[in-house]
Amino acid sequence: MKRFCFALDLKDDEALIEAYKTYHKNVWPEIIASIKDSGIEVLDIYLVANRLFMIMEVNDTFSFEKKNEMDLNNPKVQEWETLMWKYQQALPAAKPGEKWMLMEKIFEL
Fold it and tell me: 50: which DSSP letter?
């Protein structure tokens, strides 16, 4: 199984951060299904201040291209992503339109 880690910021507003956390306590079933259907077996999101850190473990059927295509063709995923963008903001190093940024692994024990 492969592991990928990503970072993204939330808007630095306590009320927005709490709302974002509330949405993630009850993620829409269509979003959960789309995650699992793409080959993602584990997906954890951590928060410190307004910085998000996501760990994704995927099986051999997963590819970023396949996941992107599935998401673009799923109206419910598009609705969720539009809603979440009200709370999220790109990292300073992000390219225009880029949300979750893949992190480089620099150490392993």
Answer: T
* pLDDT tens-digit map of 10-30: 999 999 999 999 999 999 999
Q: Give the single-character DSSP code of 96.
A: T
What is the C-alpha radius of gyration for the chain, rounded to an integer number of angstroms?
Answer: 14
Q: Are 62 and 71 in contact (CB under 8 A)?
A: no
- Any idea what DSSP says for residue 91? -
- Contacts of 39-44 with C-beta under 8 Å, sequence gap 24+, read 39/63, 39/66, 39/67, 40/67, 41/1
Question: Across-strand partners of 42?
Answer: 57
pLDDT tens, position by position, 22-72: 999 999 999 999 999 999 999 999 999 999 999 999 999 999 999 999 999
What is each CA distance from 43 to 12, 14, 57, 60, 72, in whole angstroms? 23, 24, 6, 15, 20
pTM of the model: 0.92
Q: What's the rounded Cα separation, in Å, for the pair 94 and 24?
A: 23
